[in-house]
Amino acid sequence: xxxxxxxxxxxxxxxKREPSIYGSQTLDEIQDDLFTFASQLGAKLKCxxxxxxxxxxxxxxxxxxxxxxxxxxxGAYTHTSIALRDALLGVAIPYVEVHLSNIYSREEFRHKSFxxxxxxxxxxxxxxxxxRLALQGIVNYLKQV
Length: 145
Ligand code: DQA
Hints:
The chain is of the alpha/beta class. It has helices at residues 19-22, 27-40, 53-62, 82-91, 129-144; strands at 2-7, 44-49, 69-73, 95-99, 121-124.
């Protein structure tokens, strides 16, 4: 089972960026933990981060044929990007939406997600553990289909 984790804009700064909201673990530390967790679950994980919407879309389009499931934290593009939504629906690869913070307990502009209604599931608010929960969820789902 091949999985892809996509992190969007400013998530390369996690660990330094607003640590009271996003925690003190860096993206590399979060990803290292997820590589181990994925292999314990019998999955292979690839990770991609970009601050550019177009690069994220290219990455999604290139996953066709090699990726069974996507875990995505689109950062602020979650709330703005119809193009990312279209890319995810276009490739028809099941995806889980992830957020470190609980987007529904924050500013109102974060309450709108262009991704969640078509996602397999949404994990938001558990800090870096949101990624683990999403990984577990998508692995369980893919083992059943
Ligand atoms: C985020 C929440 C978004 O609203 C924000 O723009 C981010 C991070 C999160 O992981 O909590 O960049 O996706």
